[in-house]
Amino acid sequence: MSIGKQSAKPSETDLGRILGLTAADVIRLHMSVIDREDRLESGTGSWLSSFAGDGTVRSAAARESVLRSVHTATDATNFLILSSLSEGVGTPIETIERVTGLSRLPLAERIGDLVSAGLAVKIPEANQVAGTPAGTAIVGLVNSAGETGGRDLARNER
User: Fold this and answer.
1) CATH number, domain at 49?
2) Which of 13, 35, 128, 148 is the most exposed, fewest CB within 10 Å of its CB?
3) Cα–Cα dist 59/108, whole Å
């Protein structure tokens, strides 16, 4: 993710690709931590090679990561936070506090969940949070679906 750059709004067909790439990034991070622990505990490093060689396990891990991201994003308060973020452009924590009405600690916990799911990134030196392509794509999809549903309801009322 590049901080400070706005990317084009992803199409709904891009959502699967964006979420898959985000899941892969999150899993890579977890893999590096687990591999380090495995090497420290067993000295073999065999866990990483066994994971890397099993496509079924990799696909299952990616699906689980995507489900976690979608679940995290669709919590109403988390969705409000994601909606207030711009992809790649930092939003001050104080602004997010005003938007959500949350105090610092509960907000920090929710932001931590969004970051660990790959939907947001922290910019600690600026006390800001930015959206990721995955977070932006989910917000776009949900908003698009809501607009489509609203138009359809209006058409049925005529």
Assistant:
1) 1.10.10
2) 13
3) 31
